[in-house]
Amino acid sequence: PDLVRRRDDPWAAMDGVAQSIAPLLRLAEADAERGLGDLPYPPNYPKMPGEPKRVQPSRNADLTRKNTRA
Q1: For a surface tag, which of 6, 9, 37, 70 has the fewest beta carbons within 10 Å of its beta carbon?
Q2: Predicted confidence (pLDDT) per residue in 31-50, tens digit
């Protein structure tokens, strides 16, 4: 608590400068082009379009079948 009290707030000026979200959108587009998509949402959210499976790779039946055929 004393260490935090002695230091200035590093986020105090965060909202003082407006930034563009264009670089973030470019990164999202590049990820989508590479097929990365979004991370899985928590289980209490409905399944979203393009979301990867919500299963551990070791329990992924499709992946397991593909590996046993090879």
Answers
A1: 70
A2: 989 988 777 778 888 888 87
